[in-house]
Every structure is written in structure tokens, then in C-alpha cells.
Design brief:
The protein has about 200 residues and is an alpha+beta fold. It is built from four helices and eleven strands.
């Protein structure tokens, strides 16, 4: 049942408790994330998130939740993972930090959670609702994902880590950059942010 406990506590806190000799080694869990930033007719609608976990953590979850040992996650198993190994991440904002026009937007809930296995790795996908109506002037949207304790490393993959899904009625630009004015884990690590500007096209 170790992987159930690891999901109910901050992931690394569990490992530190069970394996204190690892306390000087960080991180312990690795997530490769992909973000799809989605617009509707009004403006920003939200973000579709995909997390791919490392093989070690994936095997722990599979060991607990793949009850029929067919290397697939059935609907009932996904629901159990959601209840026991995902929902508690709401207490940590799902490792997601958003600012809209410079003001923090707290991620308190998500929708459309799914879990699957592919190539020996556990994959989570979920939707973060975040509605920002576009106007004729640019608005700024910033998103980053990280675990401030750095027990879990959340990092973009190399192949198209950010996608924008939008209608042509909007003018959108973004960049991926390290925020050197913000740090975590004893000021050693700087978050990687997606900094986006968007507005409704004139005419």
C-alpha cells in the first residue's frame, strides 16, 4: 500500500519518512508535463494538462491499482486512482501556479481526470478551467507547474511541450522562460513559466 500513502501525502514527504537515507537526494518523483492552452469564442477557456510519470513511480501505482494485473487501467481502477491518488493534490494546487494580469489565480479544482498506462509509464490527464475574456487590449496569462518542496520534479518534455488551441479571432503570443525573480527549494531552483499575451483581433 506504499503508493497509496505516497499519493495521500506530498509525494516526497512519504519517501523521506520511509527512506530517510534519501533525504539528501532530490527529487524522488519525475513528471514530464505538456500543456495545451485552449481558447473558446470568448477568450481563454482553460488548460489541458498531461503528466507522464517516471517508471519507478509508475510501477508503484500499477502494483497497487491494476487489480487484475492486465497492465491496463480499467474505468473502476481509474476512479480509485482519482479518489486515492490524485484528488488530494488539490491541497497543493495540483502543482500549478497561475497569474492573470499579475494576480494569482488559485487552482482549487480540475475536471476530466483520466489515467492510463503506456510504455510502462503512468499518464495523468486533466483539465484546469480558467476563463479569461479577451478584449481589444492585451491580457497576460502566466502558468508554471512545480513542486516547491522539489521532491517531485515537474519538467517540460522536449517535443512541443506547449500547444495553443484557438480560433483565428485572437492574437496570441507566448514564450517559455525561467523566472529569475522567483525561486523555491532553498532558493536553488527557478520555475519555468509559460508567459502568454492575447487579445481580440481588431476589425
Amino acid at each position: 500500500m506504499k503508493s497509496r500513502v505516497i499519493a495521500l501525502l506530498p509525494l516526497g514527504a512519504f519517501l523521506l519518512f520511509v527512506f530517510p537515507q534519501l533525504s539528501l537526494s532530490h527529487p524522488h518523483v519525475f513528471i514530464q508535463n505538456t500543456l495545451a492552452i485552449v481558447f473558446d469564442q470568448q477568450g481563454l477557456a482553460g488548460v489541458r494538462v498531461k503528466w507522464v510519470f517516471d517508471e519507478f513511480f509508475s510501477s508503484m501505482i500499477v502494483g497497487d491499482y491494476d487489480q487484475n494485473h492486465n497492465n491496463k487501467l480499467e474505468n473502476s481502477e481509474v476512479e480509485t486512482i482519482k479518489r486515492e491518488a490524485f484528488t488530494n493534490l488539490a491541497n497543493y494546487g495540483y502543482f500549478t501556479f497561475i497569474r492573470i494580469q499579475g494576480k494569482p489565480f488559485k487552482v482549487e479544482y480540475v475536471r476530466d481526470f483520466s489515467a492510463a498506462l503506456a510504455g510502462g509509464k503512468l499518464i495523468y490527464e486533466f483539465w484546469i478551467p480558467c476563463h479569461v475574456k479577451a478584449s481589444s487590449t492585451f491580457k497576460q496569462f502566466i502558468i508554471s507547474q512545480y513542486d516547491p518542496s522539489y521532491y517531485t520534479r515537474v519538467a517540460f518534455g522536449k517535443d512541443q511541450p506547449v500547444k495553443v488551441i484557438s480560433e483565428p479571432r485572437f492574437e496570441i503570443s507566448y514564450r517559455i522562460a525561467k523566472n529569475m525573480n522567483k525561486s523555491y527549494y532553498y532558493s536553488q531552483i527557478h520555475p519555468i513559466e509559460v508567459v502568454m499575451r492575447f487579445r481580440r483581433k481588431h476589425g
